[in-house]
Design a protein that fits this description.
Its EC number is 7.6.2.11. It contains 8 helices and 20 strands. It is an alpha+beta fold. Helix 2 crosses helix 3 and helix 2 packs parallel to helix 4. Bound molecules: adenosine-5'-triphosphate and magnesium ion (MG). The site of adenosine-5'-triphosphate has 13 residues, from strand 2 and helix 1.
Amino acid sequence: MSSVTLDHVHKRFGKAKGVEDVHIHIESGEFFTFLGPSGCGKTTTLRMIAGFYYPTEGQIRFGSREVTSVPPHKRNTGMVFQNYALFPHMTVFENIAFGLQVRSVGKAEIKERVERIMKLVRLEGFGERRIDQLSGGQQQRVALARALVIEPQILLLDEPLSNLDAKLREETRFEIKRLQLELGITTIYVTHDQAEAMSMSDRIMVMQGGVVQQVGTPHEIYHRPVNRFVASFIGETNLWAGTVVGRDQAEVHVRISSGQVLCGLAKNASPKARLAVGEQVTLSIRPEAVQESSERVGMNIVTGTVVLSEFTGACVHYVTAVGQEQLRSMSINMGRPVKQRGDAIGLHIPKESIYFAG
Ligand SMILES: Nc1ncnc2c1ncn2[C@@H]1O[C@H](COP(=O)(O)OP(=O)(O)OP(=O)(O)O)[C@@H](O)[C@H]1O
Ligand SMILES: [Mg+2]
């Protein structure tokens, strides 16, 4: 177990920008996720931690040890690559044993450690199979076992579930989390799937275009996104434009396109939001915060016409036209009649659920 520090790390590929000024400290034993769209720099950052790329600028430390230009095999990290990178002509046993052989571990110890790890990832009895005789999920577990068998201080996982079907993905997600908790390994996980990131991580780093946008717990990232990109990348949200028409210490009043004024809390603002009277501001409102209301007038009640109505059994989803904007809402099915397209509807937006994204 070890903490990981990236101290103002940059990576450029010739003129192309890889990542810019990544500055983070990952605690020992933490489950930390890099999240962002394709090409945002997740793999590049992970490869620098593993030692497959060296930073153009900045420093990397494991605990107090500087490793910025230490080669991969001297770092004691275990990595599962985006495409697994298994040796197809070798057996499961040989694949898992490989990292121990290059470290000159004795034969008897290799056998013992490989068998123990195969049990851990539930691959007992598969030792003699060749990689091309395995399913995608089994190959994924071989890749995980190969990374774990060297007893790494730091486990690096690059989209390890991307080739699995939905059910296996969920099972393996649980498995990885179980292993991480059991072994207490500092784990850095790369994904572009926000649900995966939210459900597994202690903290998440959201990236876009090689630049870190926000680092925080799933709860912070979801409820206090620092900008529009984070707000819309993490789950669904309604982004509304408005103009500040009044404010005091606690509350901010914003006129939206329908002409109506909504009241929000000043403390629910990203550092970039400007909330002086006359400023333009973006409101972020999560669909699950919006609730159907039997009232048609009142504080933060908006009225509109249902454009889309979806009943999924557990939930009711509406898209409602409110002025020039649309409002997505989602509520748990409590058995009340479901509104249909064209129906008038009143919706309540609680003031504590309005976030000013800047
Ligand atoms: N070896 C390389 N040479 C030149 N450019 C590279 C190299 N590796 C990555 N890049 C560029 O750096 C940027 C970040 O790439 P990276 O592979 O880190 O993205 P990613 O977030 O892992 O994306 P994905 O989700 O598609 O795997 C991209 O613009 C990519 O084209
Ligand atoms: Mg990648």
